[in-house]
Amino acid sequence: MLTVTNLTKRFGGFTALNEVSFEVNEGEILGLIGPNGSGKTTAFNCISGALRPSSGSITFQGREIAGLTPDAVCHLGIARTFQIPRPFRKLSIVENVAVAAHYGAAERTGEAEARRRAAKILDLVGLPADPEASPMLLGAGGLKKLELARALATGPRLLLADESLGGLDPAEMAGAAEMLKRVRRELEVTIVWVEHIMATLMRIVDRVVVLDHGEKIAEGAPREVAEDPRVVEAYLGEKIVLA
Amino acid sequence: MIDPIFLAEAAVNGVLLGGVLALLALGLNLIFGVIDIVWIAYVDLVMLCMYLVYFLVQVYGWPVWAGGLAAVALGAALGIAVHLLIISPILGSAPINQLLATGGLLFFLQSFATFLWTTDHRSVRLSLPSYDLGGIFLPLTRVIPFAISILALVALYLFLTRTFVGTAIRAVSQDREAMGLMGANPHRIYLVTSAVGGLMAGLAGALLIFLYSVHPFFGGQLGPLTFMICVLGGLGNMVGAFVASFIMSEIISIAGVLWSTEMGYVIAFVVFIVMIFVRPGGILARRG
After folding, report:
1. The complex's ipTM?
2. Closest B-chain CA to A50
3. This prediction's pTM
4. In chain A, whose CA is at the least distance from the CA of B169?
């Protein structure tokens, strides 16, 4: 569904991504992991159009998307969440999601339809549909849900989820991981999931791609990857615990 | 001791002036809040719209309402033109360049207006009745612009809060990048914002020509006051700018009766300077 080929991104003399290639298959949840600064978020930024790749190709459903603007990428069916939730704080929760549903749809569906879809998504992630409720009242878990709801409201085929678990307590983490599975099932969305917290991710994902210093060092099923010596080394010997 | 009825009348006049000032300030503040650029030449665009009404109504004999509508259309067109020709090419550059560019536009417009129309003061005077409200003198030439301003501000409020375009404008003002990822093209939102801001400049011009005479340096007359109101209310803060408009207009109006019009401006600027120290983020900003 998404094919990344020899993706390179340089910032001045610093190479954040070096000739990275991987494939995302329709319907899977792919984990994209790696230590801090390994290039995970840069990869997301290149795919979502926030950054223009220095070289390489990104095709989505057979179409080259490298270098497109974020709104064009969104209309093709790719949505992303941010590591640190960035809600529009002065808009209500419902407005946050409705505006994404209205502008994110590949074709404008009219205001009533956008509001209806927003309500459906809010229900799916478990946020109140109270039209006045402000995102300022949400805790860390609620903000992550809003971040996810806003991305899903644009009607994506592919969701790029950036650290959906960061800052959550263990109970919220389990809930958020289950949420991603439910999203895939109910909305038929393919997911690429970037995460630091490995144990939860490894339980959920179908496959893993590991980045280190901007290069791909491993790819495969979670269990194989966790035992790969290069991966263990990249994580400075930190043992990746599989439940 | 001054007769209290004069003070009451000054207070009423302050309210009437405040409505039109709010229209000016909110147009400028909307653009700043969303695009993060201060249009230094904002009131000079208003000046052009005032000239248009003057020529259409006074010289070519158009009805007042038609001249006013033409000014609103010109304002929106100027807003779009300023964004496309001046702002858009330098959006990514340092803020000082954007200030210099719109500042350059100010000198261009002033000089060009002087060249075309000389420095003569021109005005459109309407003979409308005045009402006497318990001793307070209420001229319709001031009441009608106030009423139209308030209606326009209510319309702006409804546009920003009740429509998807308005919601997107508020969203872009908070996080341009995130709104792009939600599928909205920020540049298109900027263009709409500039058109709306320009439209408000046009409407302000259509109203101000009945209160003040227009000349090429009209921008210097109301420009500083408009910026002051925006800063006092908090740059980008629409409610703050609305409140600040009335604070400033009341100071000018009441001090104008107690001392003189010039003293009114002096006191307004002193209050502004003091407030900048006390509440640098604007009157409605949270402390801290």
Report:
1. 0.80
2. B177
3. 0.85
4. A99
